[in-house]
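S1.2 Input.
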Amino acid sequence: MNDILNAIPIGFGLAFMIGPVFFVLLETSATKGFRAALVFDFGVILADIIFISFAYYGSRTMLEKIKDDPKLFLLGGGILFIYGLLTFFKSRKPVITDADLVVVEKNNYIGLFFKGFFLNFINIGVLAFWLGMIVIVSPNLEMNHTRIITYFGVVLLSYFVTDLFKIVLAKQLKNKLTPAVIWKIKRGMGITLMVFGLFLAAQGFVSKETKQKIDNAIENKMNKS
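S1.3 Output.
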């Protein structure tokens, strides 16, 4: 029970971490509706499950090298930047600007699922985060397989439940969206993704010593809590 109670705040906090997934989830809910955002979030969760599995069952030495490989940060950041660039220029300004008109688009749920998956999966920082969590939390759980699986399962579940509330709240805006507003949202989303892409790529230039200091600071903070 203590493991569960300790895991819930972690999942809740993760749901509000500012990143590309956070903004795209809200944008998807507001412009495409609840089901579309839910499918998108399933893709995000699957990427997290794969990362946690890699971190738990994989070779720690290999993963430590992967998470600090600057090429992967540059690759992930480049992909995210290009995706944001395409999103920015793909959105066309609507000719119809009737304030009462709402655009209804047919959703591609398979595409949304893979969009959520790859948007999370290309961020090597997510793997680094889960690897750090495994390294820090596992000893506190006495390296017990059942406790570890339960802990991270609750983290993801509380993360998902919190996302549901975010999706519902963002969905309330859908009926108020006009073509002009949707166009502005998509253009803004494109800029946001490009910024996060540049930020992710920039991490490839951060020295290993600086990263180690950051990791140590995070570990010390979690151990104190």
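S1.4 Remarks. Residues 95-104 have pLDDT under 50 and may be disordered.
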